[in-house]
Specification:
The chain is 76% helix and 0% strand. It has 313 residues and is an all-alpha fold. It has one domain. The longest helix is centred in the first third of the chain and has 31 residues. The protein is globular, with a radius of gyration of 19 Å.
Amino acid sequence: MLARTADNLFWLSRYVERAESLARILDVALRLATLPSAYAGTSNEWESAIDIAVCRDLFFESYDVANQANVTHFIIAGANNPYSIRACIETARHNARAVRTAMTTEMWEILNDAWNEMKRLKFESFTSKDLTKFLAFVKEVSLRFDGAAYRTMLRTDHFWFQRLGMLVERADNTARLLDVKYHVVLPKTEPVGGGLDYFQWSALLRAVSALNSYHLIYRGGIKPWLVADFLILKPQQPRSLISSYEALNTVLDHLAEQYGRQGASQRLVRQTFAGLQNLDIDTLFQTGLHEFLSRFISDNNQLGLAISEQYLQ
């Protein structure tokens, strides 16, 4: 396969996954914003959204205050935001056009239809109901695209590069969501595990479609350390860090077998995966959740660079 084709497939899936993650970030903020004031806390959930989306500097170049109207418009379709939901779908479609013969008709039609729908929408006049429907639409596009890829693509290097992009992006987004939750969303005056914390973690679990599955694993109430355990160390949870790295390890092994050699990306993914397998939640909190997540995000970025240098150039 040409490196250019592999690169397009890799980034195509990253942008689709990123669009879904941005929709989920806004969903968290919207859920927290609609809580009664007794539970919403004193923090700015909309400012936390731009922190998770890693666009704070760009946002404040265009706006003076982080409120619902400004943040939702910027993350959905901000002209000064190259990683808005609209920009992610547009870039994914552009990459898909370049590799139409490497993907299936179903995958192309899902992205093309999503982009045409995006062009029709008037984001400036969105009501709260419109926003909720739009976020559901973006998540549905991502789910349909991922399902079409899984059910229709041949298990060749085309498929493995498509999976790589999705998994690297998913791991990054899960880690950032957890990190900002602990250090931005929860006010410093509130105790971890208090009433405010319960409602915020519930909103987060609902936004990533994990509330019911959390209760299937943990029979008790919602506790921050158990949510962290669920989204970091539980392989049964498909959005957890360990689940993403287990899948990344498998995908990179397939590519190593197909191309007849291993490299830095295989070594890095095995190292991170082994570290997650040998970690327990008590040790993680003793050493510091923020420190762990910061290291993980850095290691995940290094894996993305290693994949690029090994296969995409």
